[in-house]
Design goal:
The protein is of the alpha/beta class and 207 residues long. 52% of the residues lie in helices and 10% in strands. The protein starts with 5 loop residues before the first helix and ends with a helix.
Length: 207
Amino acid sequence: MNLNHPILEQSFAIIDQEIGQHSFNASEYTIVRRIIHATADFEYLNLLYFSSDAIETGIDCLRKGYPIVTDVRMVKYGIRTLVNKTFQNPIISAVEQVTIPEPEKTLTETGLLQCFQKYPDAIYVIGNAPTALRALCKEINKTQLQPSLIIGVPVGFISVVESKQALAQIKIPQIRVEGRKGGSPVASAIINALLVLAKERELNEKS
């Protein structure tokens, strides 16, 4: 079962040729390559951070059908095709959960915190909203609840670096992009790569 379109495979071949030697393991490189395909930006080779348990945790949770909570709709739309082809995990977009933000909070921040109360052990994927990532990190520090995995890749100039620094201080499985870069395409690429790895693992165990 090949989850990759032939054009995608051709793009991967070009990326492999341009990158050449690298220090990533096979699973990490699967994610890196998909991000570069989504962005055409080879700087991600030096910006990605994987905690030691992030990929295995992600694979295991996806296979078990854990919910995936995204900050915005664009990430949800970017992953649902592969989710439907693989493990049918529930996908919840935080921004769609509320219509009125709490005082001094953004809509996405409000929705994400509500999701954390409902789905504390979900996979959290944040590609746009640094306020939501900072709020999640703050809430984790206040409670015994912990997400299974956090993908923290918001993009922009305001609070973005600070939100990623807050994530770095939490001992929890995580994949993040350092600095200002990131975004919905990057967040979607990471989850999609994990879905491919999880499906390949399942198929290999059956063969």
